Amino acid sequence: MNPSPDQSSSRLFTFCGGHQGRWRVQHQHVVAGEPLPVASFLDIVVHPATPPDSVWTLRGITSNERYSTHDEKAVLKATQEGLDRPVAVHGALIPIKKNRDWWLLSQDERRKIFEEQSHHIQIGLDYLPAIARRLHHCRDLGPDEPFDFLTWFEFAPEHEGAFNAMLARLRASVEWRYVSREIDIRVSRPTV
Amino acid sequence: MNPSPDQSSSRLFTFCGGHQGRWRVQHQHVVAGEPLPVASFLDIVVHPATPPDSVWTLRGITSNERYSTHDEKAVLKATQEGLDRPVAVHGALIPIKKNRDWWLLSQDERRKIFEEQSHHIQIGLDYLPAIARRLHHCRDLGPDEPFDFLTWFEFAPEHEGAFNAMLARLRASVEWRYVSREIDIRVSRPTV
Q1: A12, B64: Cβ pair inside 8 Å?
Q2: Which residues in chain A are contacts of B47 at CB distance < 8 A?
Q3: What is the DSSP letter of B173?
Q4: With contact defined as beta carbons under 8 Å apart, do A45 and A69 qualify?
Q5: Which of B8, B100, B140 to mutate to test the interface with A (most CBs of A within 10 A)?
Q6: Which of A11, A42, A118, B93 has its CA 20 to 30 Å from the CA of residue A112?
Q7: CA-based diameter of chain B, in Å?
Q8: What integer is the mean pLDDT of A18-29?
Q9: How far is it, in rounded angstroms, from Cα B105 to Cα A41?
């Protein structure tokens, strides 16, 4: 990330897949739905910024939590680590779109599927603090966004196996029956 | 509203206060925080559209429900009426911003204040089907939106008193302690 000091508090981030960037794409795997064009590099820029010459750009905004309770939020906050750790030279960008059925559910129905049935928060907690993450929302940026969420992960190379195990558990959950599009983009950067 | 047929499913609406429009502004009252410049007319256009020459424009997007349960949603759906009823020649646009404390609360804390303490949904139900409404979210359209929500109401002239009573009950609630900016813009349109 290259935020200039006056942009560092912005909530809006643009992920640019292209021919240059801080992160080199190791592989880009279509889990569900339409593919994205293949990019060699990934850069994350604070919006507004002029995106570099890109194969694709995806925008997302950080926001308030939608499902976590006071206690869950407190545990997350006490356990998780921030982005940009020197050891975290592996990363993953996972854009996800959920289907119409999901968005028509009421808040309590979504919460029940998300946590009581799928244990989304609990599964994430099992991999803290090794896996750092930042969730970006896209669905309410505008009516035509290609994805609903962009989740960005950072971890040390030795935790890639644990990261894969976490994704396997989430993808086997009831919540994932509502995922209509998902791309798994793995990246790495040179050790400083 | 002037949606062309191919835009009618868009979730993004722009409210334009200016010198022309379908709705004539009757009064514009600052309930809390910074005022908006005074406009004589209000128009509601489906985005993307070229806004008319405006004094201000406010954008909002309809989205999934954030707090209502399955049962509450079912009652709302069965009771509420749509916009654009011929008798509903009075309207109100109420842009609201909530403070940082609100957005730092967890989902269960916000739900508790919203409904268990403030009875927001129940109060709204008391005025159905007379008062029709559409809620638009702004906060996640971008990092610099002036408001978090735009609520648009339509009702017949004889229900203006009930509408005022509803607002008074909401503004006396615990939830409203978190409202840092609110403008109450009342409009009317000619009877067809």
Answers
A1: no
A2: 143
A3: S
A4: no
A5: B140
A6: A11
A7: 46
A8: 95
A9: 37
**Nearest-CB residue to B63 (from A11, A68, A140):** A140
d(CA A111, CA B161): 37
Which are the contacts of B100, defined by CB distance < 8 A and separation ≥ 6?
A: none
Query: Which positions in chain A touch B143 (Cβ < 8 Å)?
Result: 10-12, 47, 61
Contact state of A72 with B137 under an 8 Å Cβ cutoff: no
DSSP per-residue codes, chain A: ----GGGTT--EEEEEEES--SEEEEEEEEEESS-----SEEEEEESSS---SEEEEEEEE----SS--HHHHHHHHHH---S--TT--EEEEEEEEE-HHHHHS-HHHHHIIIIIIT-HHHHHHTTTTTSEEEEEE-TTT-TT-S-SEEEEEEE-GGGHHHHHHHHHHHHTSGGGGGEEEEEEEEEE----
Task: Give B114's contacts (C-beta < 8 A, 6+ positions apart).
Answer: B67, B120, B121, B175
- Contact predicate A97/A138, CB 8 Å: no
Q: Identify whether the C-beta of residue B141 lies closer than 8 Å to the C-beta of residue A138.
A: no
| Cβ–Cβ gap B141/A140 under 8 Å | yes
Q: Which of chain B's residues have a Cβ under 8 Å away from the Cβ of A10?
A: 143
Residue A30 neighbours by CB under 8 Å, 6+ apart: A36, A182, A183, A184
Q: How confident is the model at residue B53 (pLDDT cuts 50, 70, 90)?
A: confident
pTM over 0.90: yes
pLDDT per position as a tens digit, A159-184 = 999 999 999 999 999 999 999 999 99
Interchain CB distance below 8 Å, B108 and A69: yes
Q: How many CB pairs under 8 A join A and B?
A: 68
> Which residue in B104, B110, B140 is closest to A61 by CB distance?
B140
Tell me the residues of B at the A interface, defined by beta carbons under 8 Å apart. 10-12, 47, 61, 63-70, 72-73, 103-111, 137, 139-143
Q: What pLDDT is stored for residue A176 in this prediction?
A: 98
